[in-house]
Write a structure and sequence with these properties.
By secondary structure, the chain is of the alpha/beta class. It has one domain: P-loop containing nucleotide triphosphate hydrolases (Rossmann fold, 3-Layer(aba) Sandwich), CATH 3.40.50.300. It contains five helices and eight strands, in the order ββαβββαβαβαβα. It is globular, with a radius of gyration of 17 Å.
């Protein structure tokens, strides 16, 4: 979370996590196309302090004001084939909300569990667990023998986290999931605590 008092803006970071090919980038593509309309999702490139280069998908959006403050959401998708240190240092660090995209196909269940556990362990290592809201999206619900959302959630976590059904390739469930995390983050925007003056809408 970054506050810019002079502009009455608050910048928040949302991270899409999940196993490879679960639909993280597809979610970002649908979001980017809706808010920007050009169909070209931004591919960013960064270099670590060790000189390793990696690419990731990124987009941004804004949705009016909350208590007189303009929130700007910076949305990232964790790329495939990057190590845990990159995930922790470049994506989870500074994150305000996480959307975990699970692949509902039965043969991907173990991949989902492993990816979710990895994220949990990283958050616990940095003592971030509980501070960053996590939302579960069960994608590819149109797949043959797709696991019901309740079963997927039961395998992934015992926590009572929000869970959404989705077919991201068709745009179904994409914005419901996004709205849920935005709503959760919106409750944390208290202008007085951020050194900002609240404006009644």
């Amino acid at each position: 979370m970054t506050v810019k008092p002079e502009l009455k803006e608050i910048h928040l970071k949302i991270v899409y996590a999940g196993p490879t090919k679960s639909g993280r980038a597809t979610n970002l593509e649908k979001i980017h196309d809706h808010f920007h309309g050009n169909g070209y999702l931004s591919m960013k490139q960064r270099k670590t302090i060790d000189g390793e280069t990696f690419q990731y998908n990124y987009t941004s959006m804004s949705v009016g004001t909350i208590r007189g403050i303009k929130p700007i959401f910076h949305i990232y998708s964790i790329p495939k084939k990057v190590n845990g240190e990159i995930i922790k240092d470049y994506f989870l660090s500074g994150a305000d909300g996480i959307i975990f995209v699970a692949d509902s196909q039965p043969y991907r269940l173990e991949d989902n569990v492993n990816a979710f556990r990895e994220i949990e362990q990283m958050l616990h290592t940095d003592r971030l667990a509980g501070d960053i809201p996590i939302i579960l999206q069960c994608n590819k619900q149109d797949a043959s023998l797709a696991l019901p959302t309740e079963i997927l959630k039961r395998h992934l976590t015992s926590e009572d986290i929000p869970c959404f059904s989705a077919i991201a390739s068709k745009g179904e469930g994409v914005f419901e999931t996004l709205k849920a995390v935005i709503k959760m983050l919106g409750k944390r925007i208290m202008p007085s605590e951020l050194g900002l003056e609240m404006v009644e809408n």
